[in-house]
């Protein structure tokens, strides 16, 4: 279920119409107008980047880096090949927004990437699509073909001198490829093992060439910003948190789904939109930004607004906007065990602390869950976590540690109870 | 230049230096496993984490470039805690089976665990067990010990050129392995044993035979190819147990080829000849040195008296030392037989007289990688010169353009810009095309001899590339001739054309010398020609096995069989048991002092590392005694050094003065391609010399599989034979049968069938006409 | 040299060629993921021979293709049933019945995870996040068909349809 409340990515999309994704419907709701305007008026690259800066659009993949600034890093005068890459490798537990974008409004993404190519002087782009959503990959390929036939994509776009080729690349089951340098390795036909940075993709990216990588939602926001102006986008949200954002709400709510709402909307309102707690149960905890974000107790969340700064202040991260809602029946040890298993399973195995440490964390949590915990295990978990965090090539190590730290911070009693009584404090989910 | 501070010490380093390199320059060791100066940076082990001022997290010293004003702390609390944390992770799944591990005592993990590890483990979960892998006859695996540093993976991909080892799976389940069912077949594969920082990859032949602290280490020089790789030979109880590289950036860098590493097995072979032997009444009997040498002395005198001194042929392999070759040549000359020959594999009598000096690489080894373009002519370079091929591979990555004129298109695991693949008897015509193209491009007159040369597109592209490579002041190109060129019946024409091409293009001409002392043999005046003729009545064979070391084994054996006396100086019992009258046990390189002159003209001396086996004696000593016994002048030497001094009175300068690749007085006669089949008979890598032939582990590699007949698909079709089918091949009256293998890299009409192999000794010459019929 | 067409159907090779065309001419390796996917669709699983064939077709080291085939978890390195069912049991899905769906399937098919029914029809796998948590419980059929809201009733209907 996708709910468009107010925003840009799904502007005008009719979710009940099975043809709403196609190019005709997209053009009818104002699609490709931004691209036409750029070509017709010969809008400069600098002007486009300035508009993005005005909008205060921040990367929607999780890191929240200002998009205009990122685009300005691309060495536009670089004489060789450069690449534009979209990260649709959405596999962070709790996140499912990009899937809905490429299924319901693929042309917004395509137009956003074409504009990105124009603004940064790039002629080739790839969209890396998560492995498990093959139908979405096929939908995107179909949309690309539509765009090519309509002259929006390919050689000499709309009769101008600007050419841009865009292709879809299908992943095949590796969470780590959501990390941008792992994604580049995977695009090159290798294992998705993150690269050590520096050098950053802006100077050494795909095939060693300068590359800009953005998230699906980020690119899909661009046409609106160019069409309606950065200021209008900014005003949809709040300062430094411009625009609207897609929130993927999952877990114990009555109506899980994506909600495109202004940044800064109170969590309580979002919970209301999602139909409130399933079965009228009490809210226990929320992971507000995907599984890698530290968990927050329900009462803290109910006093927080949904934007980068407020969630950070509350002690977690907005991340990709994945809101995992848990009610009072959830055993936090069991919940952590599943998340720890995920990171253990998805660690790429390249660097020592993550390869060895994620398995250690999982095994200790698993032991506690099975009633074999020891009093010293909680200190051990914290200590092993400290030895992983900040010492790995990419952020997966940190991501594996944060749920552990968050759980032990807010729900330590539950873990102690498990260790002492060899069983759960709650009946389980 | 950047100014930085490491642990309070100020230093200046060039731009682009990494923290680990900067630290090393002032003697500060930062612990590491995955970092290796010759491999790409992986930064995966995380052992080298250090603190850098203003950085919130510890940074890997191997991957962090130095910035101006950077302050690095390698022993701060942050750095040490990070290093200790990583060490704990590395050890949780490590078996800690040091007492039964071959790496024990030379293990980086063991060494660093002493410094950074805890005395007991906090890990109480089940440890990982990883199944071992079959990587072939040279590398043993204990994969549970692996710490996933990927040095071996990066070596195969980056240095050996083909990713034969990879890390499969992911996360904790990642495993280092070769492709299912495939072994590691690179000719330089053994280096992964040295690279492995733990006991996961160890030497299979060495396994469980000694502990590292029992071994004494002695320097030596490899006796195989012309590179002269520097070695550390490890010895226990007067037996060579293991051979490792001795780093020498100018020659072998930190690598050695597998034959350098594993040929030592032959030193302890049961085929070693340990007593002088005489054949009497058709029976071989062991005897003493006195008897054997007197027999030889008397025989030489009587044959010389009866048939004249010219009836004596003295042959050596260029794997023999300077000292041995000098005395052998002196003996040959003193007996009136003229210069000794090292050219049993050579076939062009025009070559030696035309050469104006000792043919050599024409430049230092290390300079080759700095050339802009290299043209290889007639070489199975990976098998002839494994480490030189590796150097070229690295250079291609840095922009060198590599081209070929070859009778086969074997995989070089690098980018080849242009190639001319022709029949072996058409190398001259192919090269002539390039010379003609170069002359035309330079608008110079094409020599009349080459007027009819055909300039193909590839020939012109090669000429253009060589000219472009030398267009700028200081830029260089090189033409490198290999064994197939040297052994060609038209070697003189090839050498002459190559010299013309070098002259035209400004490229440096060089020979990739076949053996450890090929240059030395020439410097000492030995002849690169085959001295065996039907008029030979006495033959002295020094390290030479006629059946394997000859251009035409059958012709050579026929001469030996009709001679009155054949004396074999050898470290091994070999085919001479059939055709010799005396076997004199001389020592291999490991049991004598000596020296070799490598392809770049460098004299490298070595000492014996173990005592001579049984009654065997260093070759130079045997020749000394024989010389004295024959009453010849100038055979009194106290030690090998004295022989060397007499051999090379001007030392290095004297050698340099004799080096030259100039060729004079060779007329080129271009030939139309023959319609018949021609043999391409190269010497297989593990049949090239007496040692590799007897190293059991090398003989188990894929490079040592029995020869097959290689044909292009079109030729096979024309002959009506199929891959896998057995066919009969004939050269003259000789026949043998082999299996057919299709080889897409061959010109039509070429029958590729190795020489120097027990299966093929019954046949004839390397590059001669050959017939093939269905068996 | 082996016959390059021996391993896969002309249709599969044509699909691989289309993927190869997406990348620069000297970067055929980029198509290895797609090529392995296409090969797996045709062969149902990836034997070492199939991987070697794909590697040779793209001109890359067999080990390089093997690394890819063992890194990404949608590739099957051992035979699977006619229908491979993959259920997401990660936390967001589990909160909405994902783990229950997995247990229901185990009971219904009489097999555990990573097992295949005796008739060779179904293989059951436990999956990681498929990026569709809002549609939990989710199940993949043969990697490419996603089924949403897989309550016990929906599972029954799906199994009946596949049978």
Automatic annotation (TrEMBL), chain A:
Chemical reaction(s) catalysed? a quinone + NADH + 5 H(+)(in) = a quinol + NAD(+) + 4 H(+)(out)
Instruction: Please state every residue range assigned to the domain named NADH-ubiquinone oxidoreductase 51kDa subunit iron-sulphur binding.
Output: 333-378
Q: Which Pfam families match?
A: Complex1_51K, NADH_4Fe-4S, SLBB
Q: Which UniProt keywords apply?
A: 4Fe-4S, Flavoprotein, FMN, Iron, Iron-sulfur, Metal-binding, NAD, Quinone, Translocase
- Do you know which Gene3D superfamilies this protein is assigned to? 3.10.20.600, 6.10.250.1450, NADH-ubiquinone oxidoreductase 51kDa subunit, NADH-ubiquinone oxidoreductase 51kDa subunit, iron-sulphur binding domain
In terms of InterPro entries, this protein maps to: NADH-UbQ_OxRdtase_51kDa_CS, NADH-UbQ_OxRdtase_suF, Nuo51_FMN-bd, Nuo51_FMN-bd_sf, Nuop51_4Fe4S-bd, Nuop51_4Fe4S-bd_sf, Soluble_ligand-bd
Highest taxon of source = Bacteria
| Keyword Metal-binding among UniProt keywords | yes
Keyword Cell membrane listed? The answer is no
As recorded in UniProt, its EC number(s) are 7.1.1.-
Which cofactors?
A: FMN; [4Fe-4S] cluster
For the protein in the UniProt heading, the enzyme class is: translocase
A GO MF term: metal ion binding
Family statement: Belongs to the complex I 51 kDa subunit family.
What the protein does?
A: NDH-1 shuttles electrons from NADH, via FMN and iron-sulfur (Fe-S) centers, to quinones in the respiratory chain.
Name the NCBIfam families on file: nuoF_fam, PRK13596.1
- Name-wise, this protein is NADH-quinone oxidoreductase subunit F
Protein species of origin: Chitinimonas taiwanensis DSM 18899
TrEMBL record, chain B:
SUPFAM superfamilies recorded: 2Fe-2S ferredoxin-like, 4Fe-4S ferredoxins, Formate dehydrogenase/DMSO reductase, domains 1-3
Q: InterPro entries from the entry?
A: 2Fe-2S_ferredoxin-like_sf, 2Fe-2S_ferredoxin-type, Mopterin_OxRdtase, Mopterin_OxRdtase_4Fe-4S_dom, NADH_UbQ_OxRdtase_75kDa_su_CS, NADH_UbQ_OxRdtase_ferredoxin, NADH_UbQ_OxRdtase_Gsu, NADH_UbQ_OxRdtase_Gsu_4Fe4S-bd
Report TM segments: none
Write down the top EC class of this protein. translocase
One cellular component term (GO) for this entry is: membrane
Outline the extent of the 4Fe-4S His(Cys)3-ligated-type domain.
78-117
The record lists the catalysed reaction(s) as: a quinone + NADH + 5 H(+)(in) = a quinol + NAD(+) + 4 H(+)(out)
Domain (4Fe-4S Mo/W bis-MGD-type) ranges:
215-271
For this entry, list what GO says about its biological process: ATP synthesis coupled electron transport
Its source organism is Chitinimonas taiwanensis DSM 18899
Q: Supply the CDD domains for this chain.
A: fer2, MopB_NDH-1_NuoG2
Key words of the record: 2Fe-2S, 4Fe-4S, Iron, Iron-sulfur, Metal-binding, NAD, Quinone, Translocase
- What PANTHER family does this protein's entry cite? NADH-UBIQUINONE OXIDOREDUCTASE 75 KDA SUBUNIT, MITOCHONDRIAL (PTHR43105:SF13), RESPIRATORY NITRATE REDUCTASE (PTHR43105)
Q: Name one GO molecular function term.
A: metal ion binding
The UniProt family comment states:
Belongs to the complex I 75 kDa subunit family.
Which co-factors does it depend on? [4Fe-4S] cluster; [2Fe-2S] cluster
Span of domain 2Fe-2S ferredoxin-type:
1-78
Per the UniProt record, which EC number(s) apply here? 7.1.1.-
What is the documented function of this protein?
A: NDH-1 shuttles electrons from NADH, via FMN and iron-sulfur (Fe-S) centers, to quinones in the respiratory chain. Couples the redox reaction to proton translocation (for every two electrons transferred, four hydrogen ions are translocated across the cytoplasmic membrane), and thus conserves the redox energy in a proton gradient.
Protein name per the record: NADH-quinone oxidoreductase
Q: How is the cofactor bound?
A: Binds 1 [2Fe-2S] cluster per subunit.
**Highest rank taxon of the organism:** Bacteria
UniProtKB/TrEMBL annotation, chain C:
One GO molecular-function entry: 2 iron, 2 sulfur cluster binding
Q: Where is the signal peptide?
A: none
Which reactions is this enzyme annotated as catalysing? Answer: a quinone + NADH + 5 H(+)(in) = a quinol + NAD(+) + 4 H(+)(out)
- Protein name, UniProt field: NADH-quinone oxidoreductase subunit E
Q: Where does [2Fe-2S] cluster bind?
A: 88, 93, 129, 133
| Key words of the record | 2Fe-2S, Iron, Iron-sulfur, Metal-binding
Cofactor, free-text remark: Binds 1 [2Fe-2S] cluster.
Family, similarity comment: Belongs to the complex I 24 kDa subunit family.
Q: Which CDD domains match?
A: TRX_Fd_NuoE
User: SUPFAM superfamilies, per this entry?
Assistant: Thioredoxin-like
Organism expressing this protein natively: Chitinimonas taiwanensis DSM 18899
Q: What cofactor requirement does the entry state?
A: [2Fe-2S] cluster
